[in-house]
Amino acid sequence: MSVRLNTNYIKNFVSQHELRNIFPLIKAAHESLINHTGAGNEFLGWMNLPVNYDKEEFLRIKKAAEKIKNNSDILVVIGIGGSYLGARAVIEALRSPLYNLLTKDNPQIYFVGNNISSTHLNEVITLCKDKDISVNVISKSGTTTEPALAFRIFKEILEKKYGVYGAKERIFCTTDANKGKLKELALQNDYEQFVVPDNIGGRFSVLTAVGLLPIAVSGLDICKLMEGATKAHEDFLECNLNNDCYKYSAIRNILYNKGKHVEMLVSYEPSMVMFNEWYKQLFGESEGKDNKGILPTSATFSTDLHSLGQYIQDGSRMIFETVIDIKKPKLDFYIEEDKDNFDGLNFLANQNMSVVNRRALEGTILAHTEGGVPNILLEMPEINESELGYLIFFFEKACAISGYMLGVNPFDQPGVERYKKNMFALLGKPGFEDMRNELIEKLK
Ligand code: PA5
Q1: DSSP characters over 151-220
Q2: What pLDDT is recorded for position 420?
Q3: Which is the closest atom of ligand 1 to the Cα of 79?
Q4: N or C: which end of the chain has fewer CB within 10 A?
Q5: Crossing angle of helices 385-406/85-94, nearest 10°?
Q6: pLDDT computed for residue 1 by the predictor
Q7: Ligand 1: centre distance to CA 375 (Å)
Q8: What pLDDT sits at residue 413?
Q9: pLDDT digits (tens, 9 = 90+) for 124-156
């Protein structure tokens, strides 16, 4: 088990002496992190989470998951940003939407409250009709508009269907331990509650109840997920350049300083699409501030080679790629020979499809690096709960170290508030009256 950093394809872009020269910066970032002296140090709870999580709550999560699995066809997960992306990333990486059509062993999981689309909401409500459902509403602040609105709607659906008492048995709240609207509502209605710890920000919360309850309901093994994270926690404790996580942060920083301002997280498995989204929030919200930061983007190959491939190969030279190289797919497919070779594809026959995917990966890396795009490889022997747990912790720690190396506070997100204020003012929320008139003028 474990993810390995392969730096063979950045040799023409980053030299050994550059890595040695940047070491003092890594060391300073490491010390800020472990001594809790850096900006945002009140949000470092994720750092020891794999070895220091609430074991009592963990058992309750497993118990609640069993209850939901036994009495529900569908779990509706309500949350946005850090309150849903991690769960969805892990679930879809290992239990793709197509897999869910093939097996009905565990409840279907639908995510709402992560947008304000009435179409999407209506579709999920229709899917829930005539099915037994439970709801996990997740919001650290308990006040975020999108999930709060979705919860208002699903609370009513559940109460109509099961009565107030029956609904209470099917509503699970993951929120702050002490404060917020959702906390108050949970107490008033006696809903089962799970905690988003105070010292863990949304985008670092996948290994808390935020991610663990939906992941457990999907039938995945949350013990294995934590085991993987624990192994990564151990592997990345020491500050040296053999620490793959720190080396990755250092390489990103060196590339950024050479004008490579866009990182594209690449995978050759479509099931990783939501993992890419999780990574984008993690790095985007952590590094994108003070007019600085690498722009996190993503692509799924070979699909996107037919759309973005041209740009990556020949467009502006501002991109580097980080490729998640999964060595063994979950399922393989043997390509048979066709006796007439009607399509001329017999050169692909008598081998597994994963070999063809591998040649695509190798060919693309060679083409892109020759085109001036550095490629960092993160090699995973296979994809399962423990490997994903490892990868999650790898990225979380790399993100914190990268943020400190960049000189920003990796744990706040002041810019996210700006659109919310405008939206509230335009919607007529009490308290935003003056701003509303100003904005209406601007929109004219
Ligand atoms: O990472 C973050 O802090 C944000 O993405 C939040 O998770 C998101 O805005 C949802 O917030 P909350 O959990 O308070 O509803």
Answers
A1: HHHHHHHHHHHHHHHHHHTTEEEEE-SS-SHHHHHHHHHT-EEEE--TTS-GGG-TTSHHHHHHHHHTT-
A2: 84
A3: 15
A4: C
A5: 140
A6: 58
A7: 31
A8: 92
A9: 999 999 999 999 999 998 889 999 999 999 999
Residue 195's beta-bridge partner residues? 175
**Which residue's alpha carbon is nearest to atom 9 within ligand 1?**
81
Mean pLDDT, to the nearest integer, of 91-97? 91
Nearest to 251 by CA among 183, 321, 318, 310: 321
Q: Where are the beta strands (DSSP E) in 280-354?
A: 295-300, 319-328, 334-335, 351-352
- From 77, 80, 411, give the residue whose CB has the most ligand 1 atoms within 8 Å, as the site to mutate: 80
Report residues whose beta carbon is within 6 angstroms of any ligand 1 atom. 80-83, 139-141, 144, 147, 201-203, 285, 413
Q: How far apart are CA 228 and CA 196, in angstroms?
A: 21
DSSP string, 6-19: E-GGGTTTS-HHHH
Q: How far is the CA of 214 from the centre of ligand 1 (A)?
A: 17
Distance from residue 419's CA to the centre of ligand 1 (Å): 14
Determine contact, residues 376/248, Cβ cutoff 8 Å.
Answer: yes
Examine the residue annotation and report whether 36 is marked as an active-site residue of this protein.
no
Closest CA to 402 of 263, 218, 270: 263
